[in-house]
């Protein structure tokens, strides 16, 4: 009888693990508590807007090797789009200015010497901030490393908040330094922006489910695991509200759930396990227009723009939908969501002036406001120390999730890496593995 690998959780971490070993002769079973797989990176039909939207905006870079490897395995690379240049348009609402960061393709950062390609108003001496971040000690926060000036205000601080989903005066400088080493430091070829042509599910979830189906893996939705049984240092059963599944001697379990769920399931099984327990929110606002607007300039190539010194941080255009992402949203927790949505729309109108062929309406169109209050763990130095590795004290159980010790923030790339790491920790490498 083939070894069974039970993967608890059908988000990207769990799907990554399943894709890694499916077709290797092992019987893969994914147990997802909700009605659909994908976790935070999925699409859904929104009745209020009358269309399909992503539950959040995610921008990929060509540096995200784990993501592109995963998408290659599931045959979904052709579902992405993006400019052929490493360009990133920005709008500063406080010191009105529109510019495009235009990186050099190679590792040599020629762009910093060109006033038309770099951050307006920056001084070359401010580049020392990058070295300070890359050399940062574990207890340092990002703001400790940022030199005052436009390079930090207009680029490094917004980049830090977007990547780490944590305010710069709390976020780990060392973690941001690692992100910079894996992206900006590698040059523009590693920083080409990519995003789904249609939606997150169509790029990251649906192709994976189709791939798993072809390889005879099982995906069971609406199946919430409520407990684990263990004997002699190994998992012996998964407990559901209506059944109990025995785990054979050769079987394995990958727990690919959120940190709070993992802590709850393992509190009696692995009482010494420590997981991140502080979280940051993300606020998303989706606005549906009466007709698709016409983008111009660099915005026409990227379909996204960064916004500086505003509640609004990133604006994405997809057909007739303008979507706004606000990271590290705990700082706005006392604000009324509707009032926050109105401010964001005012900022969107201001930011889009000159980036669209015509003006946006004064009153917000149809809108959907989504506040994910525990979107990611807080990427602080103290919380990073609480990230566990994939291996556990149980020989047939491994952990996966963007909150585990991936070396990355809570990103899509980190999620997918964690699934691969869990497979490696259990020695379950299949024929699709490196």
From TrEMBL:
Superkingdom, taxonomy of origin: Bacteria
Molecular function in Gene Ontology: oxidoreductase activity
Xref: InterPro entries: Amino_oxidase, FAD/NAD-bd_sf, SQase_HpnE, Zeta_carotene_desat/Oxidored
SUPFAM superfamilies reported for this sequence: FAD/NAD(P)-binding domain
Keywords (A to Z) from UniProt: Oxidoreductase
Enzyme Commission designation: 1.17.8.1
Top EC group: oxidoreductase
Domain Amine oxidase: from-to ranges: 12-425
The name this protein goes by in its record: Hydroxysqualene dehydroxylase HpnE
